[in-house]
Each structure stands twice: as structure tokens, then as C-alpha cells.
Amino acid sequence: MAPEMTWIWEVTFWEFLFVTIILAGGAAYLTGRAIALTWRSMGTLAFYMVLLTAATRFIHFALFNGTLLSPYYYVVDLIVLLVIATIGQRITRSQQMARQYGFEYDRNGGLGWKRRA
Length: 117
Known about the structure:
Blueprint (H helix, E strand, L loop, with lengths): L12 H25 L4 H23 L6 H30 L4 E4 L3 E4 L2
Antiparallel strand pairs: 1-2
Helix pairs in contact: 1-2, 1-3, 2-3
């Protein structure tokens, strides 16, 4: 059965869901959380996502006959993982700001914080 290429995934939808969203997305979320807990920059997070995306592309290549050096699908996977990692970073950072600087900040939704009035 040949892979069904689309704009978002090169392999089948289920392979994309399992490898990119569940496996690599879980790692991306935890990486974003770790970046927030250690107070590192978003540039560091982006660097780690570039490396994680390369590993994700290799898994698609090795297990599911995807293309290893496909710039288009590399960028697609990178965008997906950056979004997931940023969500993990922002959730953790908003919890940190409200907990550690509670005298000055309150949580504002799940991804942000605001100054107390």
C-alpha cells in the first residue's frame, strides 16, 4: 500500500498522528515544560525542536517509508512540534508566574498571566 501524500502528512494520517502528534508531540510538550522550569529562552526551545523534528523525520523514514530529506514535510513537522512545545512552555510559565510571583501576578487563562490590580 503506497503512502497517501497530502499537504500535512506524507505517510498515512494514522502514522502521522502516532509519530508526530503523540510520540514527538509528547516529547515536545515535555521539552517546553522543561524549558519553562529552567527559565530558558524561546530560542533554546526552537533549537531543541529542530533536533526533535530531525529525529521525527528519521522515524517516519525508518519505520513508515517516508522521505528522510524532505524540506517541506520537515517544516510541517517542525511547525506542529513548535506549537505543541510552546503550549507546554506557556502553561508551565503561567503557573510559575502566579506561584512564585503571586504578590504581583495572577493567571490569566491557561496560557498567560497579568499584573494584579
